[in-house]
Amino acid sequence: MGPDSSQDAQTVSELGEFGLIHRVTSGRAQSSGTLLGPGDDAAVLAAPDGRVVTTTDLLVQNVHFRLDWSTPHQAGRKAIAVNLSDIAAMGAVPTGLLVGLGCPPDLPTSVVDELAAGMWEEARGVGVDIAGGDMVTATALTISVTALGDLQGRLPVIRSGASPGEVVAVAGRLGWAAAGWAVLGRGFRSPVAVVGAHRVPEPPYAAGPQAAAAGATSMVDVSDGLLADLDHIAEASGVGIDVRTDLLEIPQRLAEVASALGKDARHWVLTGGEDQALVATFSAGQPLPEGWTAIGSVIEGQGVTVDGADYGQEQGWQHWR
Ligand SMILES: Nc1ncnc2c1ncn2[C@@H]1O[C@H](COP(=O)(O)OP(=O)(O)O)[C@@H](O)[C@H]1O
Ligand SMILES: Cc1ncc(C[n+]2csc(CCOP(=O)(O)OP(=O)(O)O)c2C)c(N)n1
Ligand SMILES: [Mg+2]
Ligand SMILES: [Mg+2]
Ligand SMILES: [Mg+2]
């Protein structure tokens, strides 16, 4: 249900700032990682190993989600998931979340209710609370999420740690959300397998800490596109990365959707973002952790190639283009 479908419902401006905050926060926080919050000037979270991993990603209506393509519940889950994914990409486990909501005055409170329910569902799935946040008026529905995490005594897995000779491996899905976005963009609502992937990603949260424990040398989550995000590792590490398409599985379902739309499934897999897969590098010869699949190698040089050749310009999502 979108804001347009409930014209006579109570709006956020009628309920007001503190009524709205009370409505989305009351009785919810319960994780042992939340020592205080929400309700005071700031929350207090536990920091088990003394270091805090923190990240923020902002979602804007009609840029990251559309309320005629996704329910508020799905948009809420996605907003939390993309942030938890960045925590996992450091090899960390989440400890808490903060949520800023920019709401147009005529937004029905039911939309905020559903959004909050989706956010809490995704947060509870990994055992953390939304420990605080902010509510403001805005011209477009805006969701700003900050996630905090803990390294459990390990070193963070950073973008600059890859060396030539290492194996590049992936955990999670590639190309599904891009396929769903293409389907929705053509005015279709199915197949639900791909449309659902656009609406709510399923990041392999546990694979991040598992890769870290297995000695991954670098890692990133795929938000913009596999090639675009691998390029961050290549640049930060001062190496080249070659992706091998004979190692990259093209799921049958994606191939079918692509052929129905006259699109290329391989292109979705290589450049589609928003499935929040994890890609990491591991030393050659070591067994990969469970759930990880080799897709290429780290080489001397710079940039990302596909089967040894440049892929061209479009390697993933870019804002303002
Ligand atoms: N406005 C900003 N101020 C400071 N740092 C920023 C800002 N925007 C992005 N960054 C930093 O730039 C890096 C790359 O950002 P981004 O591409 O959004 O990462 P990701 O794709 O992992 O979410 C991150 O370390 C992020 O914290
Ligand atoms: C309505 C709509 N249009 C386009 C997209 C596609 N899209 C929007 S943002 C994005 C990339 C990821 O977003 P970003 O804010 O760059 O996340 P980050 O890399 O910072 O994690 C993609 C593929 C979408 N999800 N929804
Ligand atoms: Mg970001
Ligand atoms: Mg991100
Ligand atoms: Mg990231």
From TrEMBL:
What are the binding positions for Mg(2+) 4 in this chain?
Answer: 41, 55, 86
Looking at the record, the residues that make up the PurM-like N-terminal domain are 39-149
- Identify the EC number(s): 2.7.4.16
Instruction: List the signal peptide residues.
Output: none
Positions of Mg(2+) 2 binding: 57, 86
Residues noted as binding Mg(2+) 3 in the record, renumbered to the chain: 41, 86, 221
Give the metabolic or biological pathway: Cofactor biosynthesis; thiamine diphosphate biosynthesis; thiamine diphosphate from thiamine phosphate: step 1/1
Q: Establish whether keyword Kinase is in the entry.
A: yes
Which parts of the sequence bind Mg(2+) 5?
A: 224
- Top-level division of the source organism's lineage: Bacteria
Catalytic activity line of the entry: thiamine phosphate + ATP = thiamine diphosphate + ADP
Residues involved in substrate binding: 64, 274, 317
UniProt entry tagged with the keyword Iron: no
Residues engaged in binding Mg(2+) 1: 56-57, 134
* Molecular function GO terms recorded: ATP binding; magnesium ion binding; thiamine-phosphate kinase activity
Where along this sequence does the record place binding of ATP?
133-134, 159, 223
What this chain does, per the entry, is described as: Catalyzes the ATP-dependent phosphorylation of thiamine-monophosphate (TMP) to form thiamine-pyrophosphate (TPP), the active form of vitamin B1.
Name it: Thiamine-monophosphate kinase
Q: Which organism is it from?
A: Halopolyspora algeriensis
